[in-house]
Design a protein that fits this description.
- By secondary structure, this protein is of the alpha/beta class.
- It is about 40% helix and about 10% strand.
- The protein has a four-stranded parallel β-sheet, sandwiched between helices.
- Helix 7 links the parallel strand 3 and strand 4.
- The longest helix is centred in the N-terminal third of the chain and has 16 residues.
- It is globular.
Length: about 180
C-alpha cells in the first residue's frame, strides 16, 4: 500500500472498521472506540511510541484515542468538530441531537490532547465543511496543530494529491524539538 511505501522504516497497521472490509459487527461509536483502544494498547506494549492517523470518520476515533492515551503524533485528515454538527449543517430542519445516536465529538476532546497534531483538509471538501474543520482546529488549546490544506482536491480524492503521503511522512518523521 502507499502507506507502507511512505513509511518503510515504520510498522504500519491499517485497520478496517467493524462491518467494513470483511470485518464483522456494526460500526457504532462505542464499539469503534473500544476497538481502537484495544489495538492501541496492544501496539503500545510492543513499541516505544505510537502515532495515530485518522481520516474522515476515523479522525473522530483518532481524537478519542489521543485524548485518553499517550500518542506521539496525531494526524487528522478531513476531520470535523462532530458528526452531529456536520449532519445538522447538511439537514438544518431535522433535530440531529435527537436523531443521531453516534456523535463522534472531537471538538470536546481536543482540549485533552497533548500530542503533536497535524490536520490535513481538502480545499474542495463537499462532505466536511470548512467551518467544521476550523472549529476543531480552534479547540486544540493545549497542542495547536499544524494545518495543511490540499488545494484543488475534495474529501474523497485528497489522497490522490502527489504530496499527500509525503506530507504525512514528513510530519511523522519530524523529531520533537
Amino acid at each position: 500500500s502507499e502507506f507502507e511505501t511512505a513509511f518503510s522504516s515504520h510498522s504500519v497497521y491499517l485497520v478496517n472498521y467493524r462491518g467494513y472490509g470483511g470485518s464483522s459487527g456494526k460500526p457504532e461509536e462505542k464499539a469503534l472506540y473500544s476497538d481502537a483502544l484495544h489495538i492501541f494498547d496492544q501496539l503500545s506494549s510492543s513499541y516505544d511510541s505510537v502515532s495515530v492517523v485518522g481520516r474522515s470518520l476515523g479522525s473522530g476515533v483518532a481524537t478519542y484515542v489521543a485524548s485518553g492515551r499517550v500518542v506521539k503524533k496525531l494526524v487528522l485528515i478531513t476531520p470535523f468538530d462532530s458528526i452531529q454538527r456536520v449532519a445538522q449543517k447538511h439537514f438544518p430542519l431535522y433535530p440531529m441531537s435527537i436523531l443521531l445516536r453516534d456523535k463522534f465529538n472531537s471538538f470536546e476532546r481536543a482540549s485533552k490532547i497533548n500530542s503533536d497534531v497535524l490536520i490535513i483538509s481538502a480545499e474542495n471538501d463537499q462532505v466536511i465543511g470548512r467551518v467544521h474543520t476550523e472549529n476543531l482546529i480552534e479547540a486544540f488549546i493545549n497542542s495547536p496543530p499544524r494545518v495543511k490544506i490540499i488545494e484543488g482536491f475534495g474529501h474523497n480524492d485528497i489522497s490522490r494529491h502527489r504530496k499527500y503521503y509525503r506530507i504525512i511522512s514528513d510530519f511523522i518523521n519530524i523529531e520533537d524539538s
